[in-house]
Amino acid sequence: MMQDKKLTVGLAVTGSFCTFAKIKEVAKQLAKEDLRIIPIYSFHVQSMDTRFGTAEEFRENMEEITGERGIDTIQQAEPIGPSGCLDALIIAPCTGNTLAKLCAGITDTPVLMAAKAHLRNEKPLIISVSTNDALGMNFKNIGMLMNMKHIYFVPFGQDNYKKKTNSMIAHTDLISDTLAYALQGKQIQPVIMGPQ
Questions:
Q1: Considering the entire predicted model, what is its pTM?
Q2: Which terminal CB of the chain, N or C, has fewer other CB atoms within 10 Å?
């Protein structure tokens, strides 16, 4: 009997550095589910050291967890389209900057090129929001992306409604469930949840 092919999922990371510890846990969880995980890094993720750790250390951790060398150039991301190599693509975290550019069709980072290339294959793109202006300048972009074909959102909510009233962040513990629904062409519900 022929074995089922292992699903291949892109895990694209943008620069909401405060969420990186959670994203490493997500990568571990997905790897336990016997998925092939391909990391994809924005330029900022590749080059910026922050109080949350160094860029090099983060990439080493991700490659150790996934067993895969990440995609880190626009040129490496473009063949995702013609090859159809991904069954799904997750952008986690997805910053407000990436949301806005995705909405406008801008492809000036490896993550955005990966998203454009992947969407041409009409396969699920899953967004795990992490932005301080979700209820501000990016509110319209979230609404527009929610109405686009093949785009699904990890449930999200306000992370600090007293001090950062416009800020929203995804419930990353629901990324795996969101992926399962998205692979069936369904948006997990509810999308908007209470504070974390």
A1: 0.94
A2: N
